[in-house]
TrEMBL record:
Domain AB hydrolase-1: 30-129, 209-260
Name of the featured protein: Alpha/beta hydrolase
Organism from which the protein derives: Metabacillus fastidiosus
Keyword Hydrolase: yes
Pfam families: Abhydrolase_1
Length: 276
């Protein structure tokens, strides 16, 4: 069956080997581009990809330094640069009129991409999108220049533990199983990611301001969990007001990780929005 075809590949973009996955080969189908969030990877879309494949050709990207993408300390890990990675990948794949789907930090990467090249994107779907975050505190940025600071990041994440982190992003904790824990933990077996995260602390410029969001005319769908502890629902409501051509939907008893928690509902809303 055509929808079972999956291509795993890497492409050097801005000096970094970017891992991406293509699901389906039918060029006549609309193209969905899936962009994950902070400390995540394409793994976070594993439950909705099979549900979306019947109607879309799907491209899922591992942003640097996450997933199977190179963990580079030379790459400037700004939202602006990550958006350029998405844009350049699609340009090299000769994809036009794509629909972006961004979860958490991936939402602001998607909005950055739409802001940079609005003509490339037909629509954008934002799943609990990171919004209105400022640049990190100068003390933390200065600390990132200290030798072996990456070990502090590694120690902090280890103390948090994968289970505690998942408790923070999933409302229904019964959904957390061994597969989920191993999937989100896997990229962190490579110590180089902690060095790259140190660079990210330095480079993260903060989210797009309201005056920039007000100028983004691309049709957008915002999907939120009402129990989101990471990006609370009032942030989503504000983002919806700032985006002039947006539609906002929220789900009760749902946390931050909406693609994992309510895949059927998310798929249904994406299809209704993108195919209309």
């Amino acid at each position: 069956m055509e929808k079972s075809i999956v291509i795993h590949n890497k492409m050097n973009i801005l000096g970094v080997n970017i891992h991406y996955e293509i699901y389906g080969t039918d060029m006549n189908k609309p193209t969905l581009v899936l962009v994950h969030g902070f400390l995540s990877s394409t793994f976070c879309y594993r439950r909705i990809i099979p549900l979306l494949q019947s109607e879309f050709r799907i491209i899922a990207i591992d942003l640097p330094p996450f997933g199977k993408t190179e963990k580079s300390t030379r790459f400037v890990h700004s939202l602006n640069n990550m958006a350029k990675v998405v844009i350049e990948l699609l340009e090299k794949l000769q994809i036009k009129n794509a629909i972006l789907v961004g979860h958490s930090m991936g939402g602001q990467v998607s909005l950055n991409a739409v802001n940079q090249k609005p003509e490339m994107f037909k629509k954008v779907v934002l799943l609990c999108s990171s919004s209105y975050m400022k640049r990190l505190h100068p003390t933390l940025i200065c600390g990132s220049y200290i030798p072996y600071f990456y070990l502090c990041i590694k120690h902090w994440l280890a103390r948090q533990g994968i289970l505690k982190n998942l408790y923070n992003v999933v409302h229904d904790r019964t959904l957390i199983d061994q597969e989920m824990m191993e999937g989100y933990l896997e990229p962190f077996h490579d110590d180089q990611i902690f060095r790259a995260l140190t660079r990210m602390i330095r480079d993260h410029e903060g989210d797009l301001p309201s005056e920039t969001l007000n100028k983004i005319e691309t049709p957008s769908l915002l999907i939120w969990g009402e129990e989101d502890k990471v990006v609370p629902i009032h942030i989503g409501e504000k983002l919806s007001k700032d985006l002039p051509n947006s539609n906002f939907i929220s789900f009760k008893k749902t946390g931050h990780l909406v693609p994992e928690e309510i895949p059927e509902h998310v798929t249904d809303k994406i299809m209704n929005f993108c195919l209309s």
